[in-house]
Structures are given as C-alpha cells and as structure tokens.
Amino acid sequence: MSKKILLMGNPNVGKSIFFTELTGIHAISSNFAGTTVDYLEGRLQIGDEAYTLIDVPGTYSLNTTSEAEEVAARFMENGAAAVICVLDASNLERNLRLALELQHYNIPTVYALNLVDVAERHGVEVNDKVLAGELGAPVVRTIAVKKQGLDELIEQLETILASEGDPAACGGCAGCPSRSDNQGDVWERAREINRRVSKKHVPNLSWLDRLGVAMMRPMPGLPIAALVMALTIGVVMGGGRVLRALVLLPLVNDIIVPFFRNLFTAFLPERMFLNILIGEFGVFVISFEWILALIFPYVLFFYVAFTFLEDTGYLPRLSVLFDNVMRKLGVQGGSLLHMAMGYGCAVPAILGSRAATSQKERIVITTAICFAIPCISQLGALISLLGGRAWWMMPAMMLFSLALFVIVTLIAGKLVKGKVDPLLIEVPNLLVPNPKAYGRKLLTRMRHFLKDAEGPMLIAIVIAAVFSESGLLAMLATAAQPLVSGWLGMPAEAVSALILGIVRREMSVVPLLALDLTTLQVFIGGVVSLMYLPCLSVFAILAKEFKVRIAVTIAASTIVLALFVGGVINQVARLFV
Amino acid sequence: MGISSANLYEMKSEGILQVTSVPDISLLDNLGLRAGTQVMILIRYKLGGPVLLRVEGAYSVALGKDIAQQISVQEVSPA
Questions:
Q1: How many CA atoms lie within 13 A of A520 on its CB side?
Q2: pLDDT tens digits, chain A, 577 residues: what are they?
Q3: Residue A42 and which of A296, A360, A481, A515 are 20 to 30 A apart at CA?
Q4: A326, A333 Cβ separation under 8 angstroms
C-alpha cells in the first residue's frame, strides 16, 4: 500500500470538501476494524509519488472518549508520511487545540487555514504568517468550496515530504512540542496562540448567517420548520410520482420486461419455471416493477431532500427547536436527527443512534423507529397503495403515524430504566451545500440502497414467485384465514404481505397492490404494515446492537401490536359500516 | 447593582458572560466550554427548552436545561 497522508480536523470544517477536491471522486468508504465509524480513502498524486489520502473522522480532540476520537488517535499512532490539518479560521481557538494535540505525534504537518471568508464575515482576521511561526509549520489560507489555496497546499505538502527525515528541518520552532515551554495545558496554549494571531473587528454577517439564527427562534423558526417539512414531503411524493409515471414505468413495462419475456420464452419451454421467471409474479417482472419502478423513485427523492437538509446544517436546528417537546416525551432534541434518518432506512438510523449519550435514549429511539417510522421504501409502497384510493388516506396515515410516534416514545420512555442526558450540540453555520460533496454523498447512498435492498428484495420476490406458482400460497391463505379474514377483515391472499413483510418492509404493502381491496381494507393494510416488524436486516441489527432480550421484545411486540391494532380498527369499523 | 452571577439557565443578561464553573463532562470541554470562556445567550427557549449560546463570539452551542443549570456564569459587560 502507498504511503498515507492523513486529513485531520474538527467536525464540520470542510474536510470532506478537501478530500473530494484533492482526490477527485475516486473514493471508497471504509470501516475501521471494530467500529462503525466510516472513513474515506482516495489517491493523491504529489510530484512523482502516489499517496493514499485518508479522510479521518472529524474530532475535537484525541481524548478517546468517543469512537471517532479513538479512530483518529489510532490513525495518528499508526503513523503517516504527513498530516493535512484543516483549521476553521472562524473558530480558531478550538481548532488549535486539536492541532496542538496532533503535534505530539511528530508527523510532518501542513495546516490549511480554511473558511477564511466566513471568519472575515464574522469579524475575525487571522494572520497566517504569525500562525505559521507559532505552529512551526506551513499554514496555507484556503477557501475549499471555491478551490482557493489548494494548489499551494499541495506545493507545501511536497516541500515537507521532501525534507522528511532531514535533521536541518528541526529548528526548535516556537510551536514545537519538544520545547519545555510548550508542555502546558493545550487549551491555555490554544487560547494564547489565538490571541496572538487573530484580530477582531465588526462582523458583517451575511443573509445566510442571519437566516441561520432566525430559523432557531420559535418565531419564525416554527413556521419555517413546517414549511420545510411540507416542501420535503412535496419533493418526495411529487418527484417520486413524476419519475415513476413518466420514466420508470414505461421503461420497465415497455422495454425491460418484454425483453426478458422474449429472452426466456425463446429458451425455456417448461411452464412452471417460465412462470417463476416471467409470470405475473415472475422474478424478472416483479423485481423490476417493484424495485425500480415502485420503490427506487421515492428512495431517490427522499435522499435528494434529506442529504440537502443535512448538508445545509438545518437538521441540528430542528433538534434545538424541538428539544423542549422531545424532553416532554422523555428523550431530547438530538434524538430527532436519528429518527429523521429512520425515514430513509432503519438500519443506519439504529447504527447512528450509537452517538446517543445514554443507552436509554438509544432504546427509545430504536423503539420509535421500529414502531412508528416507516422507511422510505415502505413509504413508496404506501403512497401507491393509499394515494391511489382517496386524497385523505395519506394525510390520515401520517397523523396516525405521528400519534403512534408520540405514544410509543412516551411509553418506551417510561418503561426503559435509566436517564437521558440533556441536549449538548454545536449548531453549525447554515450554508449552501457544495455540489460535488452533495453529489458524492447522494451517489453513495443510492449505491448502498441498491446493494443492500436488492439482495433481500430478490429473496422475497423469489419466495413470492415460488409460493404463488406452487400453490403453497393458497394453502397458507386457508390456514391463516381466521386471522387475516376473520380478525383483520382482509382477503385471505393478504397473508403473503404478512409473510414477505418479515423479509423486507415494503413487502408488507406491495402484495396488497394486486388485490381488490375496499377503502377500509386499504387503511388496515397500511396500519398493520406501518407497525409490523421492520424487516430482517433491522432484526439483525437489533440483535447485534442490543441484548437479545431487547431485540426479541421489540420485534415480537411490533408484530403482536400491529395485528392487534389492525384488528381492533377493523372490528370497531364493522360496528358502524 | 454591578456584576451579577447565576447559573446559565437563570441568567437574564443579554451581555457578555464569563463561565465560572462547569460540570465535568468531556463534550463540554471539547466544545470549549470551561471556566474562563466568554459566552453570550442568543436564544432562551420556553417550556424547559435549551439555551443557545454564542461561544467566544465564534460559534453556537445549544445546551439542554439540565446542563445549563449546572454551569455558573457572571456578567462581564451589560449589553
């Protein structure tokens, strides 16, 4: 493996933009052994030599009190040819603290003094010459989003890499950790250096800075939050629908499926096999119809909207705005971030909840995600099921889901023992996302979706095809008749939704699309699907992340409650209809 | 009355405050909130909500009620 160059810095200083600009898009997401903290590696050519640039998770320090800090510290301990340390000029003191900690590892370092434009607006001017003297290493002024200073950064990197191991390079510089006057408290030294290199003048805040603060005041923050949510729903439902109707359905129905039908009919004369492959529930029909035309458009537009909100720095503002409400529910505002993630997919959301500071909060977040928060794949299917029926069904389901969320969170908060830590987060500046970094993230997410969803979906589809073609489905439908028809009031064939729903969440909805249902049956199908066990991948994550008892409790109670509530709605509705 | 001091949650001042003591939470230290740090209260939320601070005039940190109550501050200059 080529020599490593580490890209280090505080969270949110624009490290990933450096990474994207320096390596191109040739990045692979990796996992540090034993953790789930992702880091990226890419190729960086300097002069004649190719290096591996590693985007180390952003950290405030190397104290190893969090997973990200542990990973960062381990990278430094393992050594590297050089470090690029990105400093936020608008927030220098805290960034310098990490910079000083990094110096203890004696790895040649170049400092990128980034966000100098933001610092300027906030009324801070940093003298990079003086700073270079204090740190005893080159400091380059950069505005990474505008690609400014990157060439000089590479030049400086080339210089320090060339002088590596050269004893003359050590001149006992002012910032060198080996000097006795540099052994004190890092915070004190960071403050001292910052005082020497920064000059403050009157800030000249941009409209974005003002909007960033205004969004957090209850007025106009709450109306803005409502607007943002409405817009998000509009983008996902509208965009998904248009893409599905105008592009994907014609593509699948007129091109892809006929292609495979012709292909297989030419080679396979045998009827049952042919039906399994390209019959009504055939693998090659259903997998394109369901994954590509039904689920994919909604997943795409969800991540278009979600990634945008994430990259602007809007989401933490929601956490602050709704902290008091979440506190009343027994958790804190920070939980909202993980729960919002759950609308994409429960698996990364549950993994992400590791960042929650208490076990109780994690369990409550996970319970809410499993019970009340549909993932976007499932939502895509629900939109098709409910939206085609009556205009009020989708809003009714959203209200039901919201009520369920409040009740489940409240109950879980009461049942789970322990304490939830109060909110404590840095609120980043509001900014316009960098198109390249945004595009890369969106692409990665879509790739993950296709990779992670495809396998289980195909399994479910194969099961569905074999079941329906072999007559097993009819047998199961008869066996489950009392539950499915008697209690839930659904047609007996709906049993396939309950079986397939265990494999993939949207599969608890999709089989219902082919049935001729009444409005009440559609609503009950939606309710059961919403509350039902998320999917096999979620169960696997639950089992891995929590004690078996907790995983089984959550999984079993979702199934029991889903069937119970669905049945009660049916029985009560029967009294009136 | 000249200089007033209180816990951060109850401090009514709009001016610059100096932190005098903090609970021992490593994330607080990481975020630069320690004795001697200068902060300003940007927004106070009702109904048990958090306090939004501008720290050293450079960045914003939101602190839940229960942490804010454990941080003592004193007024440096009135708004």
A1: 17
A2: 689 999 999 988 888 889 888 887 655 555 454 445 678 888 898 888 899 999 998 888 888 777 788 889 999 999 999 999 999 998 899 899 999 999 989 999 999 999 998 898 888 999 999 999 999 999 999 998 888 999 999 999 999 888 865 544 444 455 555 544 445 688 889 988 999 999 888 877 888 889 999 999 999 999 999 999 999 999 999 999 999 999 999 999 999 999 988 888 887 766 767 777 887 777 888 888 888 888 899 999 999 999 999 889 899 999 999 999 999 999 999 999 899 999 988 988 898 888 788 889 999 999 999 999 999 989 989 988 898 788 889 889 999 999 999 999 999 999 998 999 999 999 988 988 888 878 888 998 898 888 877 777 788 888 877 887 788 888 888 999 999 999 999 998 899 888 888 888 888 998 898 889 999 999 999 999 999 987 888 888 888 888 888 889 988 999 999 999 999 999 999 998 7
A3: A296
A4: yes
**Which among B27, B34, B42 has the least Cβ separation from residue A424?**
B27
Q: Which of A550, A554, A515, A510 is nearest to A531 (CA)?
A: A554
Closest CA to A22 of A139, A153, A171: A153
Whether A187 and chain B come into contact, CB under 8 Å, resolves to yes
CA angle A341, A342, A348 (to 5 degrees): 75
The tokens 């510290």 sit on which residue?
A73
Contact A213 B46 (CB under 8 A): no
Question: Inter-chain contact A422–B42, Cβ cutoff 8 Å?
Answer: no
Cα–Cα distance, A203 to A119 (Å, whole number)? 9
Paired tokens of A68 = 């990200």
- Whether residue A203 is preceded by a cis peptide bond, meaning omega within 30 degrees of 0, is no
CB contact set of A394 (below 8 Å; sequence gap of 6+): A237, A382, A383, A386, A387
- Out of A320, A333, A422, the one facing B67 most closely (by C-beta) is A422
Please check whether residue A220 touches B, CB under 8 A.
Answer: no
A423 and B50 in contact by Cβ < 8 A?
yes
- What is the C-alpha to C-alpha distance for residues A365 and A359, in angstroms, rounded to an integer? 10
Integer distance in angstroms from the first to the last C-alpha of chain B? 15
CA atoms of B49 and A325, how far apart (whole Å): 8
**Contact between chains at B31 and A427 (C-beta distance less than 8 A):** no
The CA-based angle A386-A496-A251, given to 5 degrees, is: 60
Residue type, A17: I
Contact A163, A70 (CB under 8 A): no
CB contact under 8 A, B64 and A422: yes
A93 contacts in B (CB within 8 Å)? 32, 56, 58
Supply the DSSP symbol for A82: E
Q: How many CB pairs under 8 A join A and B?
A: 100
DSSP state of A434: P
Nearest to A324 among B29, B31, B45 (CB): B45
Residue of chain B whose Cα is closest to the Cα of A212: B60
Residues in A touching B60 (Cβ below 8 Å): 213, 426-427
CB atoms within 10 A of CB A556: 11
Q: Which residues in chain A are contacts of B26 at CB distance < 8 A?
A: 63, 65
For residue B4, which amino acid is it? Answer: S
Kindly list the residues from chain B whose CB atom is less than 8 angstroms away from the CB atom of residue A213.
42-43, 60
Amino acid code (one letter) for A200: K
For residue B45, the 8-state DSSP code is -
